[in-house]
């Protein structure tokens, strides 16, 4: 997986002060921000890891550059472990990742491409209301619109690691294909009309493309 290192120029050596507790076979990676990395493994999983803030400040203030901590490893690795903030099973091997904006002036999304030619995007919600709405919509879609082969949707997206902090847009986009009476039933549970749900889906789509 990812290893965070500190370079000591006077000793010409790298000290690993943080790593992941889960070994992974990476196929793609992207540097999201100062302490966050996005990665994908050969089993079709996409994930984000972040260095804990207190660890970053501790290493900066350590005059040895993390050397003392480096000698006190945990789990046969670095003394600190990164936090896994996102887990999602794509179902295909991701071969490239790039942060980009699809529309002029739009917010950036993490775009990815797979070995079978699929293109996807991971887009961050900016409001808590959107998170609550789409998470409840996803929950209703899992119950009311199971996959054709009968496999549980949650089990699929959690094939290797439990899905975490990701809403499946592909599943939510299947709402318009439901029978009208089922659309009304889900809309009533969400205290909205089917037209309002379709408008929310269109708005979310327009933020990416």
Task: Give the SSE layout.
Layout: E1 3-8, E2 13-19, E3 26-33, E4 36-41, E5 45-50, H1 53-61, H2 67-70, E6 80-81, E7 83-89, E8 94-100, E9 109-114, E10 119-122, H3 128-144, H4 153-157, H5 169-172, H6 180-189, H7 194-206
Parallel strand pairs: 2-6
Antiparallel strand pairs: 1-2, 3-4, 4-5, 5-7, 8-9, 9-10
Question: Would you kindly provide a written description of the structure presented here, covering whatever features stand out?
Answer:
This protein is α+β, with helices and mostly antiparallel strands and 209 residues long. It folds into two domains: 1-124, no CATH class; 126-208, DNA polymerase, domain 1 (Orthogonal Bundle), CATH 1.10.150. Helix content is 30%, strand content 28%. The chain is built from seven helices and ten strands. Strands 3-4-5-7 form a four-stranded antiparallel beta sheet, with no helix packed on it. Strand 8 and strand 9 (109-114) form a beta hairpin. It is elongated, with a radius of gyration of 21 Å. The mean pLDDT is 87. GO terms for molecular function: nucleic acid binding.
Encode the helix/strand succession as letters: EEEEEHHEEEEEHHHHH
Q: What's the gyration radius in Å?
A: 21 Å
Query: Which structural category fits the helices and strands?
Result: alpha+beta
Helix content: 25-40%
**What form results from the Cα inertia axes?**
elongated
Number of helices in the DSSP assignment: 7
Uncertain runs are none
Question: Distance N terminus to C terminus?
Answer: 31 Å
Main sheet characteristics: 4 strands, antiparallel
Overall tally of domains: 2
Total beta-strand segments: 10
Mean pLDDT score: 87
Strand order of the largest sheet: 3-4-5-7
Classify the beta-strand content into a percent band: 25-35%
């Amino acid at each position: 997986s990812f290893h965070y290192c500190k370079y000591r120029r006077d000793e010409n050596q790298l000290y690993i002060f943080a790593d992941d507790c889960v070994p992974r076979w990476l196929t793609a990676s992207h540097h999201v921000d100062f302490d966050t990395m996005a990665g994908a493994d050969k089993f079709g999983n996409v994930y984000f890891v972040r260095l804990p803030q207190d660890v970053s400040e501790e290493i900066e203030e350590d005059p040895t550059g993390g050397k003392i901590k480096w000698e006190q490893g945990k789990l046969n690795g670095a003394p600190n472990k990164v936090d896994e903030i996102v887990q999602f099973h794509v179902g295909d091997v991701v071969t490239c990742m790039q942060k980009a904006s699809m529309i002029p002036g739009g917010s950036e999304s993490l775009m990815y491409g797979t070995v079978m030619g699929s293109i996807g995007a991971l887009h961050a919600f900016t409001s808590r209301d959107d998170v609550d709405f789409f998470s409840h919509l996803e929950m209703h879609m899992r119950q009311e619109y199971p996959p054709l082969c009968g496999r549980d949707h949650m089990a699929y997206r959690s094939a290797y690691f439990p899905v975490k902090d990701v809403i499946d847009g592909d599943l939510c986009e299947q709402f318009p294909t439901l029978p009208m009476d089922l659309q009304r039933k889900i809309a009533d549970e969400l205290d909205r009309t089917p037209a309002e749900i379709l408008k929310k889906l269109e708005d979310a789509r327009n933020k990416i493309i």
